Amino acid sequence: MSQNSVTQTENNLEKIASWSIPRSDVYESPKDFLLFVNLPGVEKDKLKLTYENEKLELLASRPLSGHEGCHQFKRSFQLDGIAAGDITAKLQDGVLSVTLPKQNPPEARQITVE
Amino acid sequence: MFSRKNTLFFKDPFDLMFGLDRQMNSMFGNPALYRGVEHGIAKLRSLQDGYEIVCDLPGVKPDELKIALEEHTLSIEATPKSTLPEGYEARHQERASLSVSHRIDLPRDVDREGIEAKLKDGVLTLKLNKVAAAQALQIPVQVQA
Which of A8, B2, B18, B62 is the most exposed place for a label (fewest CB within 10 A)? Predict the structure, then answer.
């Protein structure tokens, strides 16, 4: 895979020794989606989450014990109908949780017939 | 199940790999086997002055974790509480099998008293010391009178 490739995260260059797609769960309520992603060993500053063109992209890295380089996690989620400005995320105990509020559906409007 | 609008789905090449992953799980009937994709298997590594065991336990809190040593077998068990939030419906689940049970046979020179465990960012790290090598013992020879 992307062995020996180099990626630039923030200001330092890191060698990627291995990579994987992190496991995730998706839950839905009438008002939002809740996304959980397993990111063991990832610290907050090694996680990049972007939302662009209705796509949530995740890129994270963790150090490898006893190995040179890091392990990279990457995954993307295609979304629509999300209020992009209200997305919130939290990283705790190696699990990322992202709340993705749904856009308010346009209100039903009574049309007066003259 | 999924409505056309307001849908969260996977639309990249990785999606194919997920299908495969799930198939493998159902084939072998043990999703825990595939925790390996996240370096999930507890690995013992030899260091200069001891050993190190690293095990991924994303979402596990210290009070949900039980580590025990019996003879030379170390067991790591975690039973995290369900993450299903109230008022939500599951749409896609890959993290379902969260309970973990590992048994590791330790080398014979591990110091049973000096095992240190640290849980940080969902990763458990155990540091094990080696017992100092037994000193060569002089056996005095008694001279029979």
Answer: A8
